[in-house]
C-alpha cells in the first residue's frame, strides 16, 4: 500500500480500474492472471556435470532453481519470499555442478546510490552469494560496492573453489566455501573489469580501463605480479584464454580522440590480437574493414568472442550485412563465415569442449527465434528446434544435454531440456492453475510500407470475434535495438509488455506491435538506418505508418487509435501525440525521451556539438508541442538511471503551458526497468484504464491549467 499512496495522480483518478481488477470481465481474465507468468533467465550449465541452473521471477519473487540428471526434476535452491525488487543476476555454476554463485542486489547510479524501489529506510547492499545444489542455506561471499552494472561479472575458478568479480574499480576474490571474506586480488590503477581465469587457474586476465585507453592485464598468482599485454594507446577489451592457457586473445579498438564529430555516426573498426601471457608480447591476427558495418558490434552482440578448440577464435560481425558468426585461425588468420544466410544470430554460447557454438537465430522464421549449433571449424549449421515457439539462450552441460528457454504465443516461458524423445519443460508447476492460456490470442505477422517505402515488420493482435469497428493501439518497444516476436519475449521488460498487450486485447483493443527501423534481427541496414533517433527521427515514419495501417482496417474506428510504449517507445509515443494528434487520439508514455538535445554530449571536444543539439531538438517531441492535442498518461520512476526523470518533469511544465491534457503516475525510488512486479501491475492497470476512458468511453480530460 505504500507504493499506491506515493503515486502522483493528476486529472481523472486511476482508481476505477483498480476496482475493476477484483473480477475478470465476462469471458475474459484479470491482469494479475496473465502477469503471473513465471519469467526464467540466467540459464547456465555445468561443464563437467549434467546440471543446469537458472533464476525464476514469479510475481516479483526471485529464486535460483536447478535440474540435475538423470531425472532432471526442477528444484528450488533459494527461498526468497517477497517482491522487494532485489535482483538476482550473474549466475555461475561450478564445473562439477555442485555450487551456484550469484549476485544479489541492484545497480548504482552515478552518485553511488543503490536502487531500492521499496523506499526502505535501511541502506541497501550489493552482495555475492553461493548456494550448494545438494541443499543448505545460501552463504554470502562478499558485500561489495559494485559499479553501475552491479557485481554481475562473476567468474569461477576452473576447480570451482574460488570466485572473482569486479568491485570498486578492482578485482576481488573469495573462496566459494565462504570460509574467508572476500579480498582484493591485487592493486591495478584504473577501473578494472571483465576477469577471466586461465584454464589451469594460475592466472587471471582482466581489462584495466584507463579512460581514453585500456589494457589487458594478467595477474600471476605464483609470482604475485601483473603483466600487460602489448600495451598501447588503444582500447583493449574481452580477454579470452586459449583452451590450453598458453595464449590469450583480445579485441583492440582505437583509443579516444580529443576532437571528433558525432554527425554522422563514425565507424568503429576492430582487430583480433593474440599474445603470450607469460611475456606480454602480442600481435594482430585479423582486422575488420573500415565501413560502418565493419564496426565492432555493440553490447551483447560482441560477446560471441571466444578462443575455441582447434586453435580458432570465433567472433560476431556485421561485415556481410547480417549479424553472423565467424572464426579465424590463430595460426594463419583469415576469417571463415560460419552462419551464412538472411538472418541474424543472438544468445551465443559454447559447448564444454569448445568445438561447437550454440546460438539462437531467426533463420527460416524471421519473426521468431530458434536454437542452432555450428562447428567452430565450419560446416552446415544444425537446427535444434523449430515450429511455432520462441526459443533462446541454449547451453550444453558436461553430460551432453542441451538446455534452453522456450515459450509460445500463449505458453509462457520455461527452461527446457532437449532430449532424444523431444523437448521437456522444467518447473511447469510454477504456471498457476488460473493462467489464462486458452483465452489469449495468437498474434500474426504483418508488414506494411512506411512513408519512404521501407517494409516494416509488426505483429497484429486481434480480439476474437472482432468484426465491428472499435479501438486499436500501436505498441512501440524500447531499445531501440529490440525485436518483438510472435510469442513471449526473452527480455523481462518485453515479457511483461507482451502480457499487457494480451490483456488489452482481452479488454477489446486491437494491438499492433511494431518492429520499427533500428530494431534487430532484420539485418544491418534495418538496424542502422539513416537519420533515426536524435539524428532526424526517421524511425517515427514507421509509427505514423502503423497508425495509418490500423485506420485502414475494417475492424478499427479511425477516431479510436492510440499508442503506447516505454523508453525509446515512450519517445516515439510522445512524437506521435505531438506531431499527429489527428491520428493518435491518446497515448501512454512510459519513461520516454522528450528532448534529445539535453542528452547530447560526451568526452573530448565535439566539433559539431551546436549542430548536433539543434538537430536533436528538432527530432524531439518538445519541438512539436504547438500541435499536441491528445491526452497522455506519463509514467516513470524517479530513480530512473536510463532516461533522466527530468525529461518527464520538463515535459509536464511544457504541457501545462500549452494546456495539453495529461495524467501522471510516478513511482518514488523505482528505476527504468521497474524492479517490483507490483510497479508493473500498477503501471499496466493504469494504462488499460486510461485507454478505456479516453478511447472507449471518449471521456475528455480537462486541459492542464498552468501550475
Written account of the structure:
The structure is a single chain. The protein has 707 residues and is an alpha+beta fold. Among the domains are: 2-34 and 434-696, 3-Layer(aba) Sandwich (Rossmann fold), CATH 3.40.50.1820; 297-396, TolB, C-terminal domain (Neuraminidase, 6 Propeller), CATH 2.120.10. 14% of the residues lie in helices and 34% in strands. It is built from ten helices and 42 strands. An eight-stranded mixed beta sheet has the order 34-35-37-36-38-39-41-42, with helices on both faces. Strand 38, helix 7 and strand 39 form a beta-alpha-beta unit. It starts with a helix and ends in an 11-residue tail after the last helix. Residues 1-25 have low confidence and may be disordered.
Keywords:
alpha+beta; single chain; 707 residues; 14% helix; 10 helices; Rossmann fold; 8-stranded mixed beta sheet; globular
The poorly predicted ranges are 1-25
CATH topology of the domain at 2-34 and 434-696: Rossmann fold
**What distance separates the N and C termini?**
28 Å
What's the total count of β strands?
42
Largest sheet: 8 strands, mixed
Give the rounded overall mean pLDDT: 92
Helix tally equals 10
Short characterization:
The protein is of the alpha+beta class. It is 14% helix and 34% strand. Among the domains are: 296 residues, Rossmann fold (3-Layer(aba) Sandwich); 100 residues, 6 Propeller (Neuraminidase).
Write the layout of secondary structure elements.
Layout: H1 2-6, H2 15-20, H3 31-34, E1 39-45, E2 51-58, E3 61-68, E4 75-76, E5 88-93, E6 99-104, E7 126-132, E8 139-144, E9 155-156, E10 162-167, E11 170-175, E12 183-184, E13 191-197, E14 203-209, E15 214-220, E16 225-228, E17 235-241, E18 248-253, E19 259-260, E20 270-275, E21 282-287, E22 306-308, E23 312-317, E24 324-329, E25 333-337, E26 345-350, E27 356-361, E28 370-375, E29 382-383, E30 390-396, E31 402-407, E32 414-419, E33 422-425, E34 444-449, E35 455-461, E36 470-476, H4 492-506, E37 510-515, H5 524-527, H6 540-552, E38 556-566, H7 568-579, E39 586-590, E40 605-606, H8 609-618, E41 632-637, H9 646-657, E42 662-667, H10 677-696
Parallel strand pairs: 19-40, 36-37, 36-38, 38-39, 39-41, 41-42
Antiparallel strand pairs: 1-2, 2-3, 3-4, 5-6, 6-7, 7-8, 9-10, 10-11, 11-12, 13-14, 14-15, 15-16, 17-18, 18-20, 20-21, 22-23, 23-24, 24-25, 26-27, 27-28, 28-29, 30-31, 31-32, 32-33, 34-35, 35-37
Amino acid at each position: 500500500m505504500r507504493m499506491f499512496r506515493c503515486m502522483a495522480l493528476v486529472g481523472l483518478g486511476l482508481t476505477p480500474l483498480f476496482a475493476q481488477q477484483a473480477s475478470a470481465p465476462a469471458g475474459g481474465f484479470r491482469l494479475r492472471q496473465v502477469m503471473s507468468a513465471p519469467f526464467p533467465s540466467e540459464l547456465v550449465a555445468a561443464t563437467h556435470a549434467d546440471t543446469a541452473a537458472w533464476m525464476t521471477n514469479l510475481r516479483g519473487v526471485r529464486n535460483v532453481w536447478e535440474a540435475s540428471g538423470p531425472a532432471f526434476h526442477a528444484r528450488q535452491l533459494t527461498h526468497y519470499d517477497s517482491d522487494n525488487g532485489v535482483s538476482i543476476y550473474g549466475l555461475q555454476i561450478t564445473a562439477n555442478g555442485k555450487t551456484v554463485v550469484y549476485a544479489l542486489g541492484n545497480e548504482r547510479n552515478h552518485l553511488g546510490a543503490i536502487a531500492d524501489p521499496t523506499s526502505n529506510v535501511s541502506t541497501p547492499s550489493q552482495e555475492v552469494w553461493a548456494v550448494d545444489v545438494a541443499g543448505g542455506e545460501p552463504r554470502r561471499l562478499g558485500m561489495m560496492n559494485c559499479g553501475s552494472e552491479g557485481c554481475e561479472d562473476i567468474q569461477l575458478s576452473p576447480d570451482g573453489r574460488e570466485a572473482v568479480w569486479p568491485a570498486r574499480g578492482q578485482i576481488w576474490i573469495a573462496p566459494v566455501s565462504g570460509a574467508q571474506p572476500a579480498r582484493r586480488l591485487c592493486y591495478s590503477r584504473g577501473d578494472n573489469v571483465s576477469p577471466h581465469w586461465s584454464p589451469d587457474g594460475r592466472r587471471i586476465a582482466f581489462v584495466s580501463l584507463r579512460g581514453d585507453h585500456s589494457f589487458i592485464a594478467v595477474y600471476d598468482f605464483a609470482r604475485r605480479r601483473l603483466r600487460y599485454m602489448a600495451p598501447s594507446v588503444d582500447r583493449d577489451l574481452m580477454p579470452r584464454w586459449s583452451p590450453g592457457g598458453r595464449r590469450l586473445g583480445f579485441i583492440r579498438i582505437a583509443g579516444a580522440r580529443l576532437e571528433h564529430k558525432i554527425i554522422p555516426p563514425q565507424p568503429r573498426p576492430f582487430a583480433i590480437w593474440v599474445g603470450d601471457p607469460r611475456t606480454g608480447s602480442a600481435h594482430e591476427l585479423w582486422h575488420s574493414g573500415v565501413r560502418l558495418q565493419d564496426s565492432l558490434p555493440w553490447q551483447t552482440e560482441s560477446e560471441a568472442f571466444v578462443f575455441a578448440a582447434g586453435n580458432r577464435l570465433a567472433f560476431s560481425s556485421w561485415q556481410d550485412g547480417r549479424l553472423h558468426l565467424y572464426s579465424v585461425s590463430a595460426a594463419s588468420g583469415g576469417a571463415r563465415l560460419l552462419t551464412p544466410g538472411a538472418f541474424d544470430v543472438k544468445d551465443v554460447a559454447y559447448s564444454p569442449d569448445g568445438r561447437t557454438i550454440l546460438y539462437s537465430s531467426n533463420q527460416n522464421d524471421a519473426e521468431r527465434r530458434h536454437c542452432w549449433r555450428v562447428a567452430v571449424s565450419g560446416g552446415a549449421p544444425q537446427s535444434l528446434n523449430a515450429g511455432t515457439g520462441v526459443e533462446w539462450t541454449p547451453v550444453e552441460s558436461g553430460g551432453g544435454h542441451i538446455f534452453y528457454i522456450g515459450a509460445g504465443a500463449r505458453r509462457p516461458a520455461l527452461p527446457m531440456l532437449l532430449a532424444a524423445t523431444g523437448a521437456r519443460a522444467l518447473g511447469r508447476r510454477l504456471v498457476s492453475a488460473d493462467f489464462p492460456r486458452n483465452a489469449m490470442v495468437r498474434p500474426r505477422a504483418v508488414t506494411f510500407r512506411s512513408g519512404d517505402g521501407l517494409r516494416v515488420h509488426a505483429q497484429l493482435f486481434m480480439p476474437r470475434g472482432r468484426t465491428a469497428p472499435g479501438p486499436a493501439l500501436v505498441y512501440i518497444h524500447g531499445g531501440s535495438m529490440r525485436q518483438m516476436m510472435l510469442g513471449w519475449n526473452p527480455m523481462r521488460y518485453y515479457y511483461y509488455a507482451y502480457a499487457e498487450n494480451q490483456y488489452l486485447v482481452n479488454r477489446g483493443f486491437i494491438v499492433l506491435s511494431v518492429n520499427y527501423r533500428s530494431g534487430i534481427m532484420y539485418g544491418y541496414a534495418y538496424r542502422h538506418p539513416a537519420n533515426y533517433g536524435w539524428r532526424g527521427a526517421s524511425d517515427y515514419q514507421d509509427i505514423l505508418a502503423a497508425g495509418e495501417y490500423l485506420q485502414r482496417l475494417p475492424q478499427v474506428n479511425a477516431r479510436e487509435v492510440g499508442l503506447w510504449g516505454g523508453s525509446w517507445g515512450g519517445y516515439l509515443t510522445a512524437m506521435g501525440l505531438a506531431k499527429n494528434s489527428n491520428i493518435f487520439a491518446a497515448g501512454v508514455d512510459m519513461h520516454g525521451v522528450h528532448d534529445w538535445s539535453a542528452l547530447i554530449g560526451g568526452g573530448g571536444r565535439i566539433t559539431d556539438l551546436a549542430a548536433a543539439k539543434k538537430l536533436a531538438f528538432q527530432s524531439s517531441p518538445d519541438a512539436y508541442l504547438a500541435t499536441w492535442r491528445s491526452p497522455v498518461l506519463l509514467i516513470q520512476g524517479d530513480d530512473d538511471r536510463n532516461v533522466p526523470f527530468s525529461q518527464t518533469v520538463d515535459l509536464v511544465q511544457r504541457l501545462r503551458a500549452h494546456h495539453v491534457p495529461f495524467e501522471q503516475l510516478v513511482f518514488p525510488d523505482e528505476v527504468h526497468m521497474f524492479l517490483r512486479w507490483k510497479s508493473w501491475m500498477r503501471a499496466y492497470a493504469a494504462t488499460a484504464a486510461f485507454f478505456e476512458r479516453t478511447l472507449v468511453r471518449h471521456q475528455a480530460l480537462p486541459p492542464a491549467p498552468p501550475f
